[in-house]
Design a protein that fits this description.
This protein has about 450 residues and is mainly β. The protein has helices spanning about 1-10, 235-240, 400-415; strands at about 15-30, 35-50, 65-90, 95-115, 130-160, 160-175, 180-195, 205-220, 230-235, 255-260, 270-280, 285-300, 300-305, 315-320, 320-340, 340-360, 365-370, 375-380, 390, 395, 430-435, 450.
Length: about 450
């Protein structure tokens, strides 16, 4: 009920205070060299509280209400140092070189608590002390991540016609294991400004035309957490307190696995190829830009698909497969002036996009995602789009008892089982699902790909 959701959340509050700053310094020396240092960061503090009502209209309705309060802070800073060189040789050779290093640190903490069974719904009564002590819980957490990088870039242009650029970088991420946290990445690009060539000067309706191409290998750690490499353990009365002497009133503290780590998780690598052109036409009034791209994601970072044997422990991010995205982008913009008081711009763009899972290691051949209260609704499988919806196809509704009986008879004839039914929950007005495998029964084997969210 949208109305119930609005009323129930009306008194919940969340506050956030951010302070962002940066300071830098730069010095030019030896005519062609520039040194620069920059330090900046963010301090983030927050506080929020919320009350959970009993939801009588939901099957999951609990036996009590609850109230929670939480506070947190996050800090992050980035320190970047670069040394650049720029020079022109022989009036035609322009060279720029940049080397640098960067350090990034993020850390934070949070603390919170909750209680159950508040006897009144009055917002003025909502304090942690006013709930039932038997339902009291408290939580706290912290994280720390660091990234250290060294990089270099070279730009070269000849006579404003031929353009080259190369980049290389080395990154070390604390969220990965000691043997995999270092990654090496690079990219390169070329450009040809055809409109600067002598043979092009007779073409008056094209004011500028440049062809370009680039290829790069980039690295990402995506949403990998600070403790991804480690096995973690915790303690709670419901999971790890045990009556060693058999007494129900005297329990001893124990520990249980709260997370399984993976020290072999490595950088996700993105290989990106791009080919395109930029053109300015018709007295500098029409701009056209077009690109074809292909991005191959190697070692996609995703939560491990380990089975129920892990219990309630959180699973780590691992490299689960490879993807490929490709497409074409085109933008056209026209701008002109009618007179000194009136000018206008009009533009259009079109984009195509195709995504496909190209490789998944392991015997299952797929991994699932999109968790809901009814389970995962997406399956990532080789040859299919990323995040494709997977489930039962609906063929319509059961219209009558006679229709249900007919389907059941077909199932009994096909299976030789006089008790077989087409679909165990079949009833008038309910969905009738597609028998994908043709065995006249609806089972897990009849699930199939039913949609593309892309």
């Amino acid at each position: 009920s949208p109305l119930a959701n609005r009323v129930r959340s009306a008194e919940n509050r969340g506050y956030n205070w951010d302070m962002v700053g940066n300071v830098w310094g730069e010095i030019d020396f030896l005519k062609h060299l520039t040194a620069r240092t920059s330090f900046g960061g963010t301090v983030d503090n927050g506080y929020y509280y919320y009350f959970n009502y009993r939801t009588y209209e939901n099957k999951e309705n609990g036996s009590s209400n609850s109230y929670s309060e939480n506070s947190y802070y996050n800090t992050s800073w980035t320190w970047t140092n670069t040394l650049s060189y720029s020079n022109i040789f022989g009036q035609k050779h322009a060279v720029k070189v940049l080397i640098g290093s960067e350090a990034i640190k993020n850390n934070g903490r949070n603390v919170g608590g909750s209680r159950l069974n508040y006897f009144t719904l009055d917002p003025n009564y909502r304090l942690l002390d006013n709930g039932s002590p038997t339902g009291q819980t408290n939580t706290s957490g912290s994280y720390l991540t660091k990234l250290s990088s060294q990089f270099a870039r070279v730009d070269y242009t000849y006579d404003e016609k031929y353009i080259l650029q190369g980049n290389v970088r080395r990154d070390m991420a604390s969220v990965l294991g000691s043997d995999t946290r270092t990654g090496y990445f690079g990219s390169g690009s070329i450009g040809w400004r055809i409109s600067k060539e002598n043979f092009f000067k007779t073409i008056n309706w094209i004011n500028d035309l440049k062809l370009r191409a680039s290829y790069g290998i980039l690295g990402t750690i995506s949403n990998t957490g600070a403790r991804n490499s480690f096995n973690l353990f915790g303690a709670s009365p419901g999971n790890s307190y045990y009556a060693i002497d058999g007494s129900t009133s005297n329990t001893s503290l124990g520990f249980y696995a709260t997370q399984y780590g993976n020290p072999k998780t490595k950088w996700e690598g993105d290989k990106i190829l791009n080919i395109g052109f930029d053109a300015v036409l018709v007295k500098n009034q029409l701009d056209i830009s077009a690109d074809w791209y292909q991005k191959k994601v190697n070692g996609l970072l995703f939560q491990d698909q380990a089975g129920a044997v892990v219990g309630g422990a959180t699973r780590p991010n691992v490299n689960v497969g490879d993807l490929q995205n490709s497409g074409f982008d085109l933008s056209v913009n026209y701008h002109t002036s009618i007179n000194k008081d009136f000018s206008f711009n009009v533009g259009a763009n079109i984009t195509t996009y195709k995504t496909e899972v190209t490789s998944i290691p392991g015997t299952a051949g797929f991994f699932t995602a999109g968790g809901t209260r009814l389970g995962d609704v997406a399956r990532n499988m080789v040859g299919h789009p990323v995040g494709a919806f997977y489930g039962y196809q609906i063929a319509g509704f059961f219209q009558s008892d006679a229709e249900i009986a007919q389907y059941n008879q077909e199932a009994q004839k096909a299976t030789g089982d006089p008790q077989a039914t087409y679909e165990s929950d079949a009833a008038k007005g309910r969905f009738r699902y597609v028998d994908v495998n043709g065995d006249h029964r609806i089972t897990d084997a009849d699930r199939t790909f039913i949609g593309d969210p892309n």
